Amino acid sequence: MSEKLFEPVTLGKLSLGNRLVMAPMSRNRATPDGLATELMATYYAQRASAGLIISEGIQPSVVGQGFMNSPGLYSQEQTESWKQVTDAVHRAGGKIVAQLMHAGRIGHPSLYPSGHQSVAPSAVTAGGQCFGPEGALDYQEPHALTGEEIADTVKDFADAAQNAVEAGFDGVEVHAGNGFLLHQFLADNTNRRTDEYGGSIENRIRFATEVIHAVSERIGADRVGVRISPANAYNDIVEGDTAALYEALVAALPPLAFLHVLEAGNREQTKALRAQWTGTIILSPHPEHLGVQVTAETAVEALETGVACAVAFGAAFLANPDLPERVRAGGPFNALDTTTFYGGDHRGYTDYPTLAEAGSA
């Protein structure tokens, strides 16, 4: 295996020991009121050999929640609960950033304690369904954010970033992809506003750039990353003008620690972003199409061709807590249990064996 994966790399204030990044993956094992748990601390610490861990999506406010048992960073109690996670990761020699994710119109009032109506740039209902304890639920029409509510949401992100630092995270990643709130403002099928936040590309990127700048000003841009997913139709998103949209968005970003790109079978788009962005890029490489697990081979190819400075692995890290060691050894790799992705207990969460544990069994 190419040693390039195991070379150190610097992302702003973050000095990584290798280039294997654990991608953000929702696991829905927080408490109903959004507290991180001891089990979550074990899960993340097990994966501390990653160059960097990007946490699961963390809601920055009550109305940012979209899923049951997802964690928050908007209260002091939630902030305190995350300290056991960051402490465990740091004791194990790892680094971890908090992904701040506002679900926007994706969710359902029955899935979270507040029972709130989801919010969005416009009152446009998402196609598809979400899933609760009793089965499938149709998405409901969201409330269109007012100008004052948009300003409050920007502040929510900055406050959550400050809470993340207090909780011991090494930085934050702002989620601006995958059909969640920031992406909903970017896309022309979900953003039908006629004010300064809708219409032109300049207007549609305004909310995302306000959030990213506010977070950067609060904790320092060298501890902030942003995740984007150009041309990703997930959660009923249609951008309409992808190339121009992301060219404008990237041009408006401050000098962040990293830009995290989730590919969706659009390597030419990735190359264009790499040419434009002079900073560090973390890539979740899917040069052909989404839905294929990232492998060491696709990771090395992305590094060697220069489209990535570090590579995010998702499902592979979920099933293999010691993924860097397994990649260096050429395997074997644990089989993935897809039935335990979301919610539940330790099964399919903290019980995947390391190579050493498998060898002694």
UniProtKB/TrEMBL annotation:
NADH:flavin oxidoreductase/NADH oxidase N-terminal domain location: 4-330
Cross-referenced SUPFAM superfamilies: FMN-linked oxidoreductases
Signal peptide: none
Domain of life: Bacteria
Pfam families referenced in this protein's UniProt entry, alphabetically: Oxidored_FMN (PF00724)
Name of this protein: Alkene reductase
Classification of source organism: Bacteria, Bacillati, Actinomycetota, Actinomycetes, Kitasatosporales
